[in-house]
Amino acid sequence: MRIELEIWRQDDPSSPGRFESHVVSDAVPEMSLLELLDRLNDQIADAGGEPVQFESDCREGACGACGVTVDDVPHGPVPNTPSCRQHLRDFGNPERLRIEPLRSASFPVVRDLVVDRTALDRLIEAGGHVDVMAGTAADADQLLIGHEDAERALDFAACIGCGACVAACPNGAAHLFAGAKLAHLALLPHGKLERGRRAKAMVEVLETEFGPCGTYGSCVEVCPAGIPLEAVAAVHRERLRRVWRGRAD
Ligand code: FES
Fold this sequence. Notes:
Strand order of the largest sheet: 2-1-5-3-4
Bound molecules: FE2/S2 (inorganic) cluster
Number of strands: 7
CATH topology of the largest domain: Fumarate Reductase Iron-sulfur Protein, Chain B, domain 2
């Protein structure tokens, strides 16, 4: 199977980027997007060129390290699927693909398809950790949590931090990401501590490092973890709760 590729090449954050054309003539439908890039890099290296830089780690949808834009869609044409789990067979054995980095003003390009997503780290850092003097490990059943709350908290905790939601948003907002963290922790007893402080600090980073949320919903269409739009509402709810209560928790 022959695929023509247009690949974004950029030497460093300050260089202008460009698309470079390549052909992979021995692709197979079972290949994932990252395997296709591996194959391309073998070809480039055999020809004495510089391989295309891209990020990956688990290659099974768990870590959030991968993430490229394929034909203008963050992660690729298969909805709610990370780049490492996008297989050529799932998008009609394409003849042509254009692959570029995740695009957002908050994610400067480091090189080729690699972007700097530390803005997401700063958001998490602002939320801080839950500071509980727990002593020795408590019995698991000492602090009972309702089944429904536990399940919902786990649903929000499924976010893998890939940043596709930010890249998909026309405003470059990170409300789905931040809301997943806020909603996850607000549902659990330990997370209720420092809830107001956490919301205030995270909203400050949201407002300074990312764009405003216009509730377009394009973030949920690409999220590999299936985080619901309800997470965006959680940002507003937690922020208003903090304002009304006027104190840290
Ligand atoms: S490489 Fe880990 S989610 Fe894709």
